[in-house]
Structure formats: C-alpha cells, structure tokens
Fold this sequence. Notes:
Blueprint: H1 2-31, H2 34-50, H3 52-55, H4 61-107, H5 114-126, H6 130-140, H7 146-153, H8 157-174, H9 179-185
Helix pairs in contact: 1-2, 1-4, 2-4, 6-8, 7-8
Amino acid sequence: xxxxxxxxxxxxxxxxxxxxxxxxxxxxxxxxxxxxxxxxxxxxxxxxxxxxxxxxxxxxxxxxxxxxxxxxxxxxxxxxxxxxxxxxxxxxxxxxxxxxxxxxxxxxxxxxxxxxxxxxxxxxxxxxxxxxxxxxxxxxxxxxxxxxxxxxxxxxxxxxxxxxxxxxxxxxxxxxxxxxxxxxxx
Length: 186
C-alpha cells in the first residue's frame, strides 16, 4: 500500500514538473492574469490528483491536458465577460439615474417657495377621492391613528389602511416631478 502511494506520488510529481509550465503559459496567453492562470492550472492538477485512476486510460496526455486548460479558460473568460457586462449595465443605470436627476433639477425653473409647495400639495390632495382625502387629512393634518380614524368615520381599520395606501400612491404619482423639492420643504 505504501509502495503504491509512493508510485502515485512519483507519477504525479513527474506530470506536474513536465506539464505545469506549458499549461501555465498556454493559460496565461488567454487569461492574461498570472494569478488567475495559476489558479486554473492548480485546480486542474488538484482534480488530477483526486482522479489519478481515471488518468491511466488517457492515450494522449498532452491533448487531454490542453483541452482541460482550454475549457477552463473558456469558462473563466465567459465569467469575466458576464461580470464586465453586469458592471457596464450598472454603470449605465447609474448614468441614467444621474441624467434623470440632472433633468429633474433643470425642470425646476426657480426654487419653489413654501407657498408654491403648499399650493401644489393642496391641489394634489383636492384631486383625491372624497374618502381618501378624508382619511389622509385626518391622519396627516390631525395626526390621528388608524384606529381613531376608523372609529370617527365608522369604517374598518383595514379600510383606513387601504385608503391611506391609495392616497399616498396617488399623491406620489401626482407630485412625482416635485418630489425632491417637496422632501426639502416638508
């Protein structure tokens, strides 16, 4: 058993010394990064060590190893392309967001004054359906809690919650162009 392990070690060491430099050069040509190339080759040799029995049936070790390296390089490069695409998409999204913010700021001709903000907000509130408006004003103007509103209006708490959700959604939609400015004043 010990002799068999020594034999396995000797065969593996010989393969490592013989093929490692060639495979590394081949990998580096495509991968470009020496560290990543070394990792690819090390992974291949690690797998070979664990599967030494399967290597006995390989007739052309050069072709086999170069095919392994080629496939690993392809996988690596595909992964790098995917990472690059994700970064580029993220940069595109960030760029679009910055453009939107710039556009949004440019649309505000002059700084809105508090009176203007109040008029915008009041106009948007007045456009709400009657029950929505009632619930919203009781909550925001009078500071009542949902349970207090439900008791006063004789509706369920879930109806109050639904009406508040509708009111906020409609106000956001109505005031979307002024939201950054409103946040500044409110």
